[in-house]
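Quick question, first post here. What does this chain look like in 3D?
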Amino acid sequence: MPPIFPMFCSMRGRLIVLLLLLIGATASAAMLMIGLFGQSASARAAQAQAESSRAAEDIAEGIRSLGALLPKSSSEAVRPEVRARLAEAVRAALHDRPGIEGGIWEEGRGSLAYAYPTYPGERPKTDVPEAELPRIERVTHAALSENRPVAVRYAAASQILLVTATPLRGPVPGWTAWTMTRIFPFAGRSYRLLMAGLAILFANVFLASLLLSRFTLIWSRHLRRIESALQAHDIPDLPVLPPTGERELDRIVSALNEAGARLSEARRKADRLARQMAAGERLAAIGRVSAGIAHEIRNPIAAMRLKAENALHGDEAAKNGALRMILSQVDRLDALLRRLLSVSERERVRREEVELEPFLASCASTLAELAKAKGVSLVATADLKEASFDPAQIRRALDNLLRNAIEAAPEGTEVRLRAQALPEGVRFSVHDEGSGPPASIRAHLFEPFVSGRAGGTGLGLSIVREAAAAHGGTARLLDEGPGTTFELVLPWAAS
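> Answer (accepted):
Ran it through. Tokens below.
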């Protein structure tokens, strides 16, 4: 059976309903604006401004009528009895104007007279409002400067303040008559129209909210059903979702089902390719390591074979020399195997608090003779007192970095070993003035048996990388010249 209201079965239909409700709300807002137009704050402000201007003119007229009582110049002081007569003139001008206060202002001296005869309080108000003095001064100054009446509006959140000033023409320059009144827009008939319009608007918004809430609950129920189906499924593949009965939502469900099918197929292809790539990478790594081992072992064996063959046909001294050479080659092979084991077997990190200055000095002193023989000076500095790490592993890593730096540094230069504190951990750096490893091997610099130096095993930087990784840190060659800088960063130990 088809639905009675098909439009309610689609999100579009529901949006149309919401749109109609919003049109009703807009219509009520238009009614509100029309009602406010007739009795707007601007119209009331204009009317009040005209009344204030007339009041200021009346004050000025009353002051001019005093005639001979007024001072003859601005330097002459205003006597108390004259001030009283000025205040009487202001009261007389404002006594039948509700809500208007005013007075006489002298440029540079301030208020000469003030009155607010219609003040609604129990006692007469005799003092100029302290908060409004700066505004009164600005308006009276503008009236004197322009030599004409000036009216200024100051709008606030709940009221509009009108200040009007008229210059007094007479024997005393710098006098102005001023008036001030306040308009409260949210009062009277306009305010009642505002409340009625808001009530209609809120009613429409409330009804729209109810309908929207119902629509949202329906969609939320369907979405929770889809979410539960997805969460309950053990994903390598997306589950097949049932239709919900919502047109737009069913389009999403259909798209998800199709995407799940494509994802399953793509995952199977990706797994197959990953297995192939992993197998290829393993074979490549085995090939590189095997080639490196074969190269490093073949040379000593060939040298021992040659010496042994020569010793068979030589005298006793030749045999003894051959044996010593064979022993040195055996030591070389043994050292190679030990370094290879240190790369392939990751040791457990034994952290301890290490004082860095003596630690770095010890690392440098171990290689001092080698540096001296190469004509290179070693400098070790520490910018922090101590750090937590495995001293044996880090000493082995720094030893390899320092040996490489000494071999690469030009004669007469420095090799600098430094420890610094970073936000993420402690940084060890080894810098020399050499040209650095060739660009062709930099991408594989920390892999076993990769070396840019003739006679090098290519295991030193592998040991550095493994020591850094064991601590959860990193080792890298920095691209900052001149010279060459290797960096070893170890994260701070968890407290």
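The chain has four domains: 6-37+190-224, 39-185, 297-344, 352-491.
The first strand starts at residue 100 and ends at 106.
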